[in-house]
Specification:
Blueprint (H helix, E strand, L loop, with lengths): L1 H7 L3 H9 L6 H14 L5 H8 L4 E6 L5 H16 L3 E6 L4 H13 L4 E5 L8 H5 L6 E4 L9 E5 L1 H14 L5 E5 L5 H16 L9 E3 L4 H12 L7 E4 L2 H13 L9 E3 L16 E3 L2 H17 L7 E4 L2 E3 L8
Parallel strand pairs: 1-2, 1-3, 3-4, 4-5, 5-11, 6-7, 6-8, 8-9
Antiparallel strand pairs: 10-12
GO molecular function, one term: DNA-binding transcription factor activity
Keywords: DNA-binding, Repressor, Transcription, Transcription regulation
Protein name: Ribose operon repressor
């Protein structure tokens, strides 16, 4: 910047004003500065600017992704919101590995991100010790919080969603209902399963042990689980799948057995991923507002950055039933 200022015959502050467009500079001086920038092939240093401003305009996001499209759709909402608000996003995928999770967390914090979004639904979350070394970094937990982090928490009411899905099957006339639940080391999977149990108990419906299968929230897990249920001497007539990815896998298993959804077996999912309305038949599911979740998380994080003394909030998003054609009324 000093070289640009010297060549243009102006002060470094004038160069800064021209680059940042934060103060009026005459047209002739602006032209001299721009010519000097072009001649010297000068590019502003984001690092230098962040040191001076004590802000990097960067948000870090730590999440466990998989083949499940739900995560990609949430990240899409986060990225869009970051872009619209002038922030860059650094994304770290933990792949469910605790050691990798803590290493990625340390890396993001060392890079001096302005704030941190965490979406790792494992019951065992990132190191509290690592977070405690950077107490000034605002944090928003998305859908999960294993300890008192002091940050904001945004959650889907998964228990209510599990209840809603199961109650819908019961009201459709089903009594033989199975559940393909997600992994119970993930809090949303736990809550959805508990919602299923609560609705079945409220309706005084018994659940054979073999009607409960714990899977992995993946396409293949739903396929394998559905095959096990279809092999039973008395297979269920309806399925609550803990997420849409497993519901898609269940569809494939039903198809390979020469059966049809919903004529032979009804299926309801959870998440309302982009693929759901394009299944054959379109999948009835519980809608999670994924874009809203991403936007709300970014907005809340930026609010936390600007208002570090504000008290922490728990924001709960309400799930909604999306009725399509995968459940047949009896």
């Amino acid at each position: 910047m000093k070289d640009v200022a010297r060549l243009a015959g102006v002060s470094t502050s004038t160069v800064s004003h021209v680059i940042n467009q934060n103060r009026y500079v005459s047209e002739s001086v602006t032209l001299r500065v721009k010519n000097a920038i072009e001649q010297l092939n000068y590019a502003p240093s984001a690092l230098a600017r962040s040191l001076k401003m004590n802000r990097t305009n960067t948000i870090g996001m730590l999440l466990t992704t998989s083949n499940n499209p739900f995560y990609a759709e949430v990240v899409r909402g986060v990225e869009r919101s970051c872009y619209e608000l002038g922030y860059s996003l650094i994304l770290c995928n933990t792949e469910g590995d605790l050691q990798r999770m803590n290493h990625s967390l340390e890396t993001l914090l060392q890079k001096r991100v302005d704030g941190l979004l965490i979406m790792c639904t494992e019951a065992q979350g990132p190191s509290k010790e690592v977070l405690s070394r950077y107490p000034s970094v605002p944090t928003v937990m998305m859908d999960w919080s294993p300890f008192e982090s002091g940050g904001d928490i945004i959650q889907d009411n998964s228990f209510l969603g599990g209840e809603m899905a199961t109650r819908y099957l019961i009201e459709a006339g089903f009594t033989q209902i199975a559940c393909i639940a997600g992994p119970q080391d993930k809090s949303p999977a736990q809550a959805r399963f508990q919602g299923f149990l609560a609705a079945m108990k409220q309706a005084s419906l018994s659940i054979p042990d073999e009607y409960i299968i714990f899977s992995d929230f993946e396409f293949a897990g739903g396929f394998e689980s559905m095959n096990k249920l279809l092999e039973l001497a008395n297979p269920p007539k309806a399925i609550f799948a803990g997420n849409d990815a497993m519901a898609v896998g269940a569809y494939q298993a039903v198809f390979r057995q020469g059966l049809k959804v919903p004529d032979d077996i009804s299926i309801i999912g959870y998440d309302d991923i982009d693929l759901s309305p394009y299944m054959i038949p379109p999948l009835t599911t519980i809608h999670q507002p994924k874009d809203e979740l991403g936007k709300l998380a970014v907005n809340q994080l930026i609010f936390r950055m600007d208002n570090p003394e504000a008290s922490a909030n728990v924001l709960v998003l309400t799930p909604k039933l999306i009725e399509r054609q995968s459940v047949k009324y009896r």
